[in-house]
Design brief:
- It holds the Pfam family RIB43A.
- InterPro entries: RIB43A (IPR008805).
- The chain has 377 residues and is mainly α.
- The chain contains 7 helices and 2 strands, in the order H-H-H-H-H-E-E-H-H.
Length: 377
């Protein structure tokens, strides 16, 4: 009885696993209905699902990073705003302190660098009675107004010329005003005469227009009455003609020829079509029956094709099963032959080992050599 070695168990397990994978592959390959040439849809579906899972994981990781970045940005904005407020408060406190306790006026040397020193200083001479106008200051001298009389005479002459010029301008203005008033009176009288004449013409024209309008209205009324009588008469004639046309026309008589289109015999006028004829209905029913028969024939061919595919698949599966059984039988025969060979080799090795031991202890006998040679042969 042979003992199963761990290596043999591993080989049998691997062989069974390969055999199972081969059977699964044969089911996928020999199934003509679910097979796609050169592709494994289940593996593709698994790959697509794995890819979607990977993309979802990556998206979630990116969203987490984005949320963390937004949180960090918000914290950074808050800290920057706080820093700006602190700087603004510090600058304001420094300015307030400088305005309160470090004003330029409080310096000892401010009078040397005061920008408003010239504005604050008094002028050299405020008036003739200024007490600061000393002799050494040289701001006032005796006898400075030497041309007083000529200046006064020139001023009097200038005032007289100005008065005469004003009188002449006043007289000219009065003369222009009198001329303008006379012209205005003449123009006003002319306008009044023209308005009176136009008023007379307007009253005469209005009377003539009223007479003409009255005559025109009378003629229009006469023409309107005659036109209404003529229209009523024409309307009655049109109604009689329309009734006659409808009674003898194709619409009420339902003539099928009126629906014929000028674009071809296979087209009709929709607003005149009264329906299909019995011949057309029979032809449509015949075409429908032919279509039903054709559909049944195609379904029968599809069913026969499916049956052929199923039969081929069963035959191929049966052939594969027979081939696997034959391979198993051949492997079993080979294993048995190999076991027999290994058993004979083991026996020969034992005899050889025993022979070597006997050689070491004493000389072998002739019967032993004969037995060993026979077994070897």
């Amino acid at each position: 009885m042979e003992l199963a070695q761990p290596r043999d168990l591993g080989q049998d397990l691997a062989l069974g696993k390969r055999r199972h994978n081969e059977l699964c592959r044969q089911k996928r390959v020999f199934n003509a209905r679910n097979r796609i040439v050169g592709g494994d849809t289940e593996a593709w579906d698994i790959q697509v699902r794995d890819q979607k899972i990977k993309e979802a994981t990556e998206k979630a990781r990116h969203e987490t990073f984005a949320a963390e970045m937004r949180h960090n940005d918000k914290i950074t904005c808050i800290l920057e705003g706080r820093e700006r407020r602190d700087k603004r408060s510090l600058c304001k406190a420094i300015n307030d302190f400088q305005q309160s306790f470090q004003r330029p006026e409080t310096r000892r040397e401010f009078d040397l660098s005061d920008p408003l020193a010239l504005k604050k200083d008094l002028p050299a001479r405020q008036s003739d009675n200024d007490i600061r106008n000393t002799i050494s200051g040289m701001q006032k001298f005796m006898g400075e107004d030497l041309n007083f009389r000529e200046r006064k005479k020139f001023q009097e002459e200038q005032n007289r010329e100005w008065s005469l010029q004003q009188q002449r301008e006043w007289e000219d203005a009065r003369a222009h005003q009198r001329c303008a008033e006379d012209l205005y009176l003449k123009t006003r009288l002319q306008f009044d005469e023209t308005a009176k004449h136009l008023q007379n013409l307007e009253s005469a024209t209005r009377k003539a227009v009223c007479v003409a309008v009255k005559e025109f209205n009378k003629s229009q009324a006469t023409e309107s009455l005659e036109r209404k009588i003529q229209e009523k008469k024409q309307e009655q004639e049109d109604n009689v003609a329309e009734i006659s046309n409808l009674l003898h026309g194709d619409l009420l008589s339902e003539n099928p020829q009126q629906a014929a289109s000028s674009f071809g015999p296979h087209r009709v006028v929709p607003d005149r079509w009264k329906g299909m004829t019995q011949e057309q209905l029979e032809q449509i029913r015949l075409v429908q029956k032919q279509q039903i028969q054709e559909k049944l024939r195609l379904q029968e061919e599809e069913r026969q094709r499916d049956m052929d595919w199923d039969r081929r698949r069963v035959q191929m599966a049966r052939a594969a099963l027979l081939l696997e059984r034959q391979q198993r039988r051949q492997q079993r025969d080979l294993r048995r032959a190999l076991d027999c060979n290994n058993l004979s080799l083991a026996k020969e090795q034992r005899l050889q080992k025993k022979y070597m031991e006997e050689i070491c202890t004493n000389e072998p006998t002739e019967d032993y050599f004969t037995q060993f040679n026979t077994r070897s042969r």
